[in-house]
Amino acid sequence: MVAERNGKKVYDETTVEADMNLLSMNKDEDFHQLEDDPEKSEGEMGEKELEEMEKKMRKKRKKRALLEFRCRVEDAIIGNYLLGKPNRNTGIKEAAKAREQLKEITLWGVPLLPSKGHEGTDGVLQKFLKAKHYKVHEAFEMLRKTLKWRRDYKADGILEEKLGGDLQNLVGFLEGKDREGHPLWFHANGVLKEREMYQKTFGSDEKCEEFLRWMVQNMEKGIKQLRFEKGGVDSIVQITDLKNSPGPAMKEFRSVSKKALLLLQDHYPELVYKNIVINAPFWYYARHILRSKIISHKTKAKFVFANPSKVTKTLMKFIAPEQLPVRYGGLKRDDDDDFSPADKASELSIRGNFAATIEFPVTEAGVTMVWDVTVVGWDVVYKEEFVPEDEGSYRIQLQNQKKVGESLRNCFYISEPGKIVITIENPTFNHKKTVYYRSKAKPTVPMYILFNK
Known about the structure:
alpha+beta, five-stranded mixed β-sheet, four-stranded antiparallel β-sheet, 12 helices, 24% strand, elongated, PATL, CRAL-TRIO_dom, CRAL-TRIO domain-containing protein
């Protein structure tokens, strides 16, 4: 099917035929799989052996399904019927031109013609197969419908459109990655509860459609960060914050949300790794149960819910503190001049009714120490001080002992060697507290020197 010439892959016209022959051979192998060892009956096989055999069979079925899907897509593109039957009234030259254009068709920037040999083609096709439980006919129809929808919706040019306006960075934004490298798409609906903003966003059918189109645009922005090649990150984590969100009585908001969910399910298969819903009110759970009747089991399985008291704890399971915005208990700040996501945080656990200390030693004077601290769940007693190395010098209290409930950042100019000491006391009896912290020393010229100059 693929020849190697001077280190390059060469595809010929027998690609589809070779795939079909391999497909036939795989079917024959499946029929004879259980006959390889006639002396060993199924009853004599151990549980682990059966599980291993089933695993191999599933793997072969998936491989066979991908081969069949590749063949169908190749035939549909070469035959010029991937987007529907060609117009019979079209001239020979026009038909040939349309066929050549179809050979260049792409989805999310990846060529769909298998014989082109692009590394991402199989990854894209796998998305549709997984969404349809490896039923090739259903996956093929889903692909066709998606391509037709993208053509009619003009989705390929949506990134060039100016959409969102005031909503950008207020309602939806792409920022950071989870622990496995999936891009994070945050969607906070609280600002939409304000009457003026709600009317501005959903005041007419045209505005509702624009909001939906803006959501699709955000999805397309996230996809630009994905890699469909083997081993690449090929899906997004969506985080929906429902704090102060418009209630179920807001029918326009409810309608657009439903449409957006169905669009993601129908035309962006397996592109959402997790859909984490935080600060969900009671009415949302009730609506989600009703909505479950119209969404697939695969879509439902991607949802993770977190009530207000467990937002940070839930998000930290998926997202490192350096990548999680401060508003959700992380360490990431907008336009941060002190730290970047590459500055990793250390972790400390404090048992109930215990205290722990964090120390940032400074061996040289003339620097400013900057540090970040966040506690999952907070509700702790917190104190900061500078302890000089010289026993004759005085300790300096930087922050009095008090209960805190948000991510902290502080800094202190070091005029003599010593250390910053942070003491955290966990007053709860049965709950362990997890602390994330980091620090950095920045060379600093004191202001009085600058003024003297």
